[in-house]
Amino acid sequence: MRYSQLVNPHNASSTSRVRTIFEYLVIIIGIAPMALMVNWVLLPHAFVGGGLTGICSVIYYVTGGLFPALFPEYGGAIPVWLTTLLFNIILLLIAGLTVGWRFCIRTMVGVLAITFWYRVIPILPQPIISDPWVGAIIGGFVFGLSLGCVLAANGSSGGTDIVAMIVNHYHNISLGNIMLVCDVMIIASAFFLPLPEGMLEEGANPTYLQIKRVLYGVAMTISYTVAVDWLMARLHRSVHFLIYSSKYDEIATAINTTVNRGVTVLDGTGWYSKKPVKVISVLVRKPESSLVFSLIHDIDPNALVSIADVGGVFGSGFDKIKVK
């Protein structure tokens, strides 16, 4: 199946089902690196990141040794997978009653997937990246790429995404601003947590070490934000084709049927020849552009083709129009 059929199924019900299955697989598998970075980098380094993961990690640090009988494999601390599941269930129930249950179904898949991966991936006693600054940057970047894959599949890992959606439902506040405020508050809470042994430095001022801990969380959050934006920009890039050819009808039909994209044929006049011409206008995703070029070359190698990068395309077959 071509990429174009997955991203733009139009009204084909069978293709739509395949696309839905594909998106659910991306959510389930694509969310695994997030759990890897949490259990192999964030928790071993005792970082506090943003979002619900940050809240759950704070609970994990604070409750260490309090419940040895219940959670012996986690050193007596309440595990992240359990708090993630419980918090998300509460938030999803609230969201279902306010925003609507349709939003919750796909989010629940992401919640169950991240809970599963948190549970099966062991927490390492020592981080796989020993340097905390490098760990924060690389860990955050991989975390962001994973989250970007989930978002590209119209999924969500839950947490502050749900909170932002609920608040935005009642107040005209940007989702990004809501999540930013949540992240700042969560990361800042690291300043008031006891320092783990791994962060203690002989002769160092405790306040300085606490500030460093907060900065690790800031670095990780910035890194994953950059990664999400970079991936989403790559996946959502589109191009605008203007095609001048005497075989416009064949090219337009080929693009319409093979690439599954809408085509507009414009009337024009060649000012040098003073003859009427037909101009094909079509918008496609960046990965689909090579297929369009191939079709044009096969039908009319002498066609004049102009392409332009488009920052965003909203509407049928592309991104949904959102008002923030």
Note down, in words, how this protein is organized.
The chain has two domains: 31-235, no CATH class; 238-310, 2-Layer Sandwich (Alpha-Beta Plaits). It contains twelve helices and four strands, in the order ααααααααααβαββαβ. The protein has helices at residues 3-7, 13-30, 32-45, 51-62, 80-98, 101-120, 132-152, 160-170, 175-188, 206-235, 248-259, 289-299; strands spanning 238-244, 264-270, 275-285, 304-310. The two termini are 35 Å apart. 34% of the residues are buried. The model is unreliable at 1-13 (pLDDT under 50).
The number of helices is 12
Domain tally: 2
- CA radius of gyration is 25 Å
Q: What portion of residues belong to β-strands?
A: 5-15%
Number of DSSP-assigned strands: 4
- Sum up the overall morphology in one term: elongated
Order of helices and strands: HHHHHHHHHHEHEEHE
Main sheet overview: 4 strands, antiparallel
State the share of residues found in helices, binned by percent.
55-70%
**N-to-C span:** 35 Å
- State mean pLDDT (0 to 100 scale): 82
Low-confidence stretches: 1-13
| Helix-strand category | alpha+beta
Widest sheet: strand ordering: 2-3-1-4
Annotation keywords:
4 strands; Alpha-Beta Plaits; 324 residues
SSE blueprint:
Elements (H helix, E strand, L loop, with lengths): L2 H5 L5 H18 L1 H14 L5 H12 L17 H19 L2 H20 L11 H21 L7 H11 L4 H14 L17 H30 L2 E7 L3 H12 L4 E7 L4 E11 L3 H11 L4 E7 L14
Antiparallel strand pairs: 1-3, 1-4, 2-3
Helix pairs in contact: 2-6, 2-7, 3-6, 3-7, 4-5, 5-6, 5-8, 7-10, 8-9, 9-10, 11-12
Describe what is shown at a glance.
The chain is an alpha+beta fold and 324 residues long.
